[in-house]
Amino acid sequence: MAVNYEDQTILFDFVVKQGNGVKGLIDSGMSCVPQPFVQPPSERIATLNGQTCEAAQPIDLSQLDGPHHKEVAKQIVEAAETLGFFQVVNHGVSIELLELLKTSAHEFFAQPPEKKATYLKEVSPSKLVKYGTSFVPEKEKAIEWKDYVSMLYTNDHEALQHWPQPCREVALAFLKSSMQMVKRVVEVLMEDVGVRLEEERMNSLMGTKMVNMNYYPTCPSPELTIGVGRHSDMGMLTVLLQDGIGGLYVRLDNGDWAEIPPLNGALVINVGDTLQILSNGKYKSAEHRVRTTNIGSRVSVPIFTAPNPSEKIGPLPQVVKRDGVARYKELLFQDYMNNFFSQPHDGKKSLDFARAD
Ligand SMILES: O=C(O)CCC(=O)C(=O)O
After folding, report:
1. 52, 93, 201, 235: most buried by Cβ count inside 10 Å?
2. Where do the domains of the chain lie, and which CATH numbers do they carry?
């Protein structure tokens, strides 16, 4: 199908509203980046930054429950306090499953556009599944170079019934085999602030679980576009599988960006805003972004964990007592989430909504 790249309304409808995605543009033969995808200079990732960071050294989670517990717990705590990002190996998710996830992400996006478009928000047969392009394309200065499918978890039965083929089984297996590890990491982080969460509270704080599959098509001019703009995640912890292409960057304290290098068999973990709020700022939600590339299409598979919408979040009393001040106010997670999804990505601005006056 011939797409009129000059007419921005036609282009937006083709990519976003009709669900052809950025992949549909590339498949239609587009060879230069159309204007709606051109980022303002301040957001572009002009040169490939060779800087890597501490997250290049993965943490061995199998050592957490042995004689090296203290050492490993310290590594996790230090990473969460500084970068907000770390990588883990021996995490309990099989390498075979990680490979299957990447394959099935490619399979999902390789389907004809009309098949994927059945999951567009406005028409999706299930409220659990949403397919689309970019974060809030209607409000963004420039559209992100990314197609995605989101799968919200309620229970196994509904996941297997409603999540799309060809990824439902593997996505569910990924979620189930990761959750124990995620809870263990949260426990370690809580231990360090002197908090032992009751099982019920832990389950409420991790009650929203969503698996996404992201697809970043190969881009003819990566220096003009971004895959995902600067943002932090809203929840507790995010677990991310990335393929070998690379392009995930985290912001350092001095404002520079460093790449989280792809490591075969490793999973990336990052701190979300909720954990920053609960810990009164001790743990840092990580500002991150994704660059595009012309060497191939990249896939990533994040699992987002967040509180139940009805959960109240705020700095934990034990931490406030220690710090002598509450840096965030108490609020309903539903309100935090509504605000988060109503704005385009803008670094860590999402946290302003929770800041104490
Ligand atoms: O693809 C990645 O590496 C990161 C994805 C991400 O930040 C997101 O989906 O929010």
Report:
1. 235
2. 8-354 (2.60.120.330)
